[in-house]
Write a structure and sequence with these properties.
Helix content is about 45%, strand content about 15%. It is of the alpha/beta class and about 425 residues long. It has 2 domains: about 1-195, NAD(P)-binding Rossmann-like Domain (Rossmann fold, 3-Layer(aba) Sandwich), CATH 3.40.50.720; about 260-430, NAD(P)-binding Rossmann-like Domain (Rossmann fold, 3-Layer(aba) Sandwich). The strands form 3 sheets. It has a 6-stranded parallel beta sheet, with helices on both faces. Helix 9 packs parallel to helix 12 and helix 12 packs across helix 13 (about 330-340). The protein is elongated, with a radius of gyration of 24 Å. The protein starts with a strand and ends in a 7-residue tail after the last strand. It binds uridine-5'-diphosphate-xylopyranose. Uridine-5'-diphosphate-xylopyranose binds near residues 153, 154, 255, 262 and 322.
Length: about 425
């Protein structure tokens, strides 16, 4: 099938490259000429495992091309996926101006029938707005016609290609049978259940799923505080809960809170949607409160142990909001580091991928060339992202380098007993501290 993907950000580019790899002919559009130039030259503008190979391979096979022109993308496609950004406004509401602008341009470029599919995460009833906007802007003299559908993405950064190719489910929100047929045939070669529903329900499925997952994380973080107070072990509590199939083991890792561009944004948007519709989503406000509190709690653990921070050297392992991505958006590391800097701490940080981005966000800290450099003469070492490389670090060497062998592990990467035996003071989340 000929497919256009409008918006070549994380979601759009993964979607476009994966559709091409499934055998479709895909044209990816983006208004950012620099980004399109980067893609045309065989590079990708962000780090995502496996994506570069897919882009290069499918561009070479002429199944994947790039343009800055929406009109060109519309002309060459039968189905148009919209995956432009829907950032958060001050009020928490999603800003849909890019969606409106793109839809207007699609409508004005339309010469025949197209299926227009929302891929971006959008508030419920956006499908109706897209339909109205299309109708208003359709060229009157031509035989332009369209249908609107919703096909939300559930891609995790760092595992996006795998999530696309092996999804738990595919959600398809449609108004007519033809749209269902078209979308089912696009995903024909993917082995996953397809949930077919109306457009409103599909839109809600996305926001409800991300809100539920965030709630799971805040729940376990809340319980981790109790564990710390009474000397219990959150890892065992999670394990014991996770074996219950009704609960499941995933998203029960306590830490320094969730970050990234999706969870905080989608929670704020869903709360706003609920309020607008007169539904009480107070539970989700508490999910945010616990998440913010978790970062503050971690900062307090550091301060309570180090006393005055002024002039103390603190090493930081990990900056991205989670491993296998260079994404720093809403990374807990930003708030934590800024707070410690405000108290005068001298921060030396290392991240395997996120340092170029981090340098633009955290301007007054030092960046190390490797993890060991962060430990040299440090009063404490903070683990903020659980990169595999940090799990496998030579801890005996780290200890020799540090001024005070003290680790604050915000991701529960290490075994407290082993760290104690190596001579570390070790403070982690929801587990007894080793001192
Ligand atoms: C998320 C959703 O998983 C995905 O389906 C959606 O489409 C986009 O948003 P992503 O933001 O890439 O994906 O990251 P995810 O792996 O879900 O992690 C989100 C955050 O939660 C990270 O900061 C992570 O560290 C944190 N997290 C996750 C926990 O603190 N504990 C957990 O148990 C799981």
């Amino acid at each position: 099938m000929n497919i256009a993907v409008i918006g070549s950000g994380h979601v759009g580019l993964v979607t476009g490259a994966c559709f091409a790899d499934l055998g479709h002919k895909v044209i990816c559009a983006d208004s950012d000429a620099k980004k399109i130039q980067t893609l045309k030259s065989g590079k990708i503008p962000f780090f995502e495992p496996g994506l570069l190979d897919l882009v290069v391979k499918n561009a070479a096979k002429k199944r994947l091309s790039f343009t800055t022109s929406i009109a060109t993308a519309v002309k060459r496609s039968e189905v148009i996926f919209i995956s432009v950004g829907t950032p958060t406004k001050e009020s928490g509401e999603a800003d849909l101006s890019s969606v409106e602008s793109v839809v207007t341009q699609i409508a004005r470029s339309l010469t025949g029938y197209r299926l227009v599919v929302e891929k971006s995460t959008v508030p419920v009833e956006t499908g109706n707005w897209i339909k109205r906007t299309m109708q208003i802007n359709l060229p009157k003299s031509r035989k332009a016609d369209f249908d609107v559908a919703s096909n939300p993405e559930f891609l995790r950064e760092g595992a996006a290609v795998q999530d696309f190719m092996k999804p738990d489910r595919i959600v398809v929100g449609v108004e007519i049978k033809l749209s269902e047929k078209i979308l089912s045939s696009i995903y024909e070669s993917i082995d996953a259940p397809i949930v077919v529903t109306d457009v409103n329900s599909a839109e809600i499925i996305k926001h409800a799923s991300n809100s539920f997952l965030s709630a799971k994380i805040s729940f376990i973080n809340m319980v981790s505080r109790l564990c710390e107070r009474v000397g219990a072990d959150i890892l065992k509590v999670s394990e014991g809960m996770g074996y219950d199939r009704r609960i499941g083991p995933s998203f029960l890792s306590a830490g320094i809170g969730f970050g990234g561009f999706c969870f905080p944004k989608d929670l704020a948007a869903f709360i706003h949607i609920g309020e607008k519709a007169g539904a009480d989503f107070g539970m989700l406000k508490e999910v945010i409160n616990i998440n913010e509190g978790q970062k503050k709690h971690f900062i307090r653990l550091v301060k309570d142990t180090l006393w005055n921070l002024n002039g103390k050297k603190i090493g930081v392992l990990g900056l991205s909001f989670k491993p296998d991505t260079d994404d720093m958006r809403f990374a807990p590391a930003i708030d934590i580091i800024r707070s410690l800097r405000n108290d005068g701490a001298d921060i030396h940080a290392f991240d395997p991928e996120a340092m170029p981005v981090a340098k633009t966000v955290l301007r007054d800290i030092r960046f190390a060339r490797n993890p060991y450099e962060t430990a040299r003469s440090a009063d404490a070492l903070l683990c903020l992202t659980e990169w595999k490389e940090f799990r496998e670090i030579d801890l005996a060497r780290v200890k020799r380098l540090m001024k005070r062998p003290l680790i604050f592990d915000g991701r529960n990467m290490y075994d407290p007993k082993a760290l104690g035996e190596l001579g570390f003071e070790y403070v982690s989340i929801g587990r007894p501290a080793v001192r």
